[in-house]
Amino acid sequence: MATAHAKTDRRTGARPPLALTVHQPWATLIVAGLKPYEWRTWEAPAWAQGQCVVIHASRIDPKAYALDSMIIQIECDLDAHGGEGLVVEPALRLLRDAAAVRHGKLHHGRDPLPRGAGLGTVTLGVPASKFALRSQGKVRAADHHCQVRDRKTGRPRALYGWPMRSPTRWDVPVPARGAQGFWTWPHEVPAETEMADG
Question: pTM to 2 decimals?
Answer without folding.
Answer: 0.83
